[in-house]
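Below is a filled-in request sheet from our internal design queue. Each sheet records the structural input a requester submitted and the sequence that came back. We keep these sheets so that new team members can see what a complete request looks like end to end.

REQUESTER: design group, bay 2
PRIORITY: normal
MODE: inverse folding
CHAIN LENGTH: 201
BACKBONE (tokenized):
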């Protein structure tokens, strides 16, 4: 997984938080802890709550090299010949890199026709439609994503804790007080991270 410098991760050793921060820092902390004892270590993406599979084989240098290689692969630019900017900095030919990601979109012929007739073409029309939908959904997509992130984390690490089902029901009901209250007896690191992911408080 290429490392996004703005993306953060959290590792747990058993039911205790081990480290949080950039992926490389969390991976090295997990490697050091794995050498100390046999506690299972799980690393979570702070954005999605998903478990991240880290390859902790070899030395710290090996782990760092693998993660740097993945990071560089994510940052790799086109092999198109570069020409210098007037200020001397190299620049790619064509349109500036905007972080656009190409993926397949499947639509009916009438929908393609409508998109093609829009100013700027299909891609620009789709971007406008998506931005408008994001503005008008009242934050519901963000709330749903936060709840799903908390659910992924809790399912992976807290499924055997007492009252798990009640906690999940409160989470999806949007009951912030009930969600926090039902985790009172749980390990504090689990509770605090779940509350952070769920963003109900």
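RETURNED SEQUENCE:
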């Amino acid at each position: 997984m290429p490392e996004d410098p703005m993306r953060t991760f959290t590792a747990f050793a058993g039911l205790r938080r081990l480290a949080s921060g950039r992926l490389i820092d969390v991976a090295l902390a997990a490697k050091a802890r794995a050498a100390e004892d046999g506690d299972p270590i799980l690393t979570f993406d702070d954005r999605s709550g998903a478990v991240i599979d880290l390859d902790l084989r070899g030395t710290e240098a090996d782990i760092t090299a693998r993660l740097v290689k993945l990071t560089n692969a994510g940052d790799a630019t086109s092999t198109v010949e570069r020409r210098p900017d007037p200020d001397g900095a190299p620049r790619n030919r064509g349109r500036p890199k905007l972080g656009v990601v190409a993926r397949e979109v499947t639509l009916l012929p009438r929908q393609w026709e409508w998109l093609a007739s829009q100013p700027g073409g299909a891609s620009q029309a789709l971007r406008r439609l998506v931005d408008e939908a994001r503005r008008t959904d009242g934050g519901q997509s963000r709330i749903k994503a936060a709840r799903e992130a908390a659910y992924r984390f809790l399912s992976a690490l807290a499924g055997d804790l007492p009252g798990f089902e009640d906690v999940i029901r409160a989470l999806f009901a949007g009951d912030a007080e009930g969600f926090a209250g039902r985790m009172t007896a749980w390990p504090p690191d689990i509770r605090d991270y779940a509350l952070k992911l769920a963003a109900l408080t």
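SHEET NOTES:
- The longest strand covers residues 16-21.
- Residues 140-198 form one domain.
FILED BY: M.R.
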